[in-house]
Backbone:
């Protein structure tokens, strides 16, 4: 007879359309982009912009991209790997735990996952947003949504959140292992390409609301003052990977992809870096995407297809994507650690 679980784990990833159809992609884009933490402008402007301009024009184009990566049997890569991570973590943790999966946008919803956890009368619930580096638009949005939904509960188990895991040893080890499979010494340059953010979203990292990454040295080190800075965490992850791979400072570049609109986003942009390294005669690039725990549209298509094509048009020869964490056993070890440790406080890597 199986033991009744006393602890709940809620894994939450960003989300994916229910299908690569234009209608489902539009529905996904609307939910995603009308989140006030994603596009942080007044609600009336945001809704007008997203529902009236972005979603109608972008959905047909995005649907074609999703169709290119959609598997006939397994569907969305992000959902497939997320469900695999859920199942493997459940097996690892055993009957004492119940592991649920949710997506911040679309299916399975956070509301549906919490509805399954609520009647279990659990002692505690640990929420793990599957974003290694903290950002208000990703981890912050997940925490905000969970808290809003749980506000209606009459009784509460002990609830805790994992804010980030940018320096998680298991995560670093998996990326290193996956890179070594590609023989990194045969590449001219290495890119660490992270998902971008509008620059204005970094100003609230400090309570004063005047955080300045350049003045705070976020590209050089991470400490108490920039502890929650997305840029600082991205560079901290990069330094750990570069150290493990024994890369020289001249041998790699940190860059940021997937920007939207004309407002300034974190630089350098990946597209600009591709032009720069191609102009310097680099022919073969090895590309990491350490902001993602599962391969998805941003890794498989944006890097593996769009940037590969762009680089070849600039005179390059090959772009090789380093596989994400996906279902690697060491990453399941890392998830188990995040699920069971009493807190995620740890020494800040400088």
Residues:
């Amino acid at each position: 007879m199986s033991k009744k679980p006393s602890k709940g784990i809620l894994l939450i990833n960003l989300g994916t359309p229910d299908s690569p159809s234009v209608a489902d992609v539009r529905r996904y884009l609307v939910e995603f982009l009308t989140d006030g933490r994603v596009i942080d402008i007044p609600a009336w402007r945001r809704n007008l912009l997203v529902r009236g301009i972005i979603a109608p024009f972008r959905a047909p184009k995005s649907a074609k991209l999703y169709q290119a990566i959609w598997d006939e049997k397994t569907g969305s890569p992000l959902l497939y790997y997320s469900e695999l991570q859920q199942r493997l973590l459940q097996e690892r943790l055993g009957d004492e735990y119940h592991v649920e999966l949710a997506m911040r946008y679309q299916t399975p919803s956070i509301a549906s996952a919490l509805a399954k956890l609520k009647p279990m009368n659990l002692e505690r619930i640990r929420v793990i947003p599957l974003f290694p580096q903290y950002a208000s638009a990703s981890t912050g949005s997940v925490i905000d949504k969970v808290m809003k939904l749980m506000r209606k509960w009459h009784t509460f188990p002990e609830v805790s959140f994992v804010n980030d895991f940018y320096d998680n040893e298991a995560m670093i080890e998996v990326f290193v292992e996956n890179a070594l499979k590609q023989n990194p010494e045969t590449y001219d340059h290495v890119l660490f390409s992270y998902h971008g953010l509008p620059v204005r979203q970094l100003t609230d990292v400090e309570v004063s609301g005047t955080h300045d990454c350049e003045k705070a040295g976020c590209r050089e080190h991470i400490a108490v003052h920039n502890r929650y800075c997305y840029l600082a965490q991205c560079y901290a992850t990069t330094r750990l990977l570069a150290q493990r791979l024994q890369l020289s400072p001249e041998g790699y570049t940190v860059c940021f992809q997937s920007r939207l609109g004309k407002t300034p986003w974190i630089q350098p942009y990946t597209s600009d870096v591709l032009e720069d390294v191609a102009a310097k005669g680099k022919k073969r690039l090895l590309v990491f995407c350490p902001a993602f725990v599962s391969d998805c549209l941003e890794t498989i298509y944006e890097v593996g297809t769009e940037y590969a094509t762009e680089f070849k048009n600039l005179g390059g020869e090959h772009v090789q994507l380093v596989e994400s964490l996906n279902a690697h056993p060491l990453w399941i070890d890392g998830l188990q650690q995040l699920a069971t440790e009493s807190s995620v406080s740890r020494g800040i890597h400088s």
Q: What stands out?
A: The chain has two domains: 7-163+329-340, 169-321. The longest helix spans residues 43-69. DSSP finds eleven helices and eight strands in the chain.
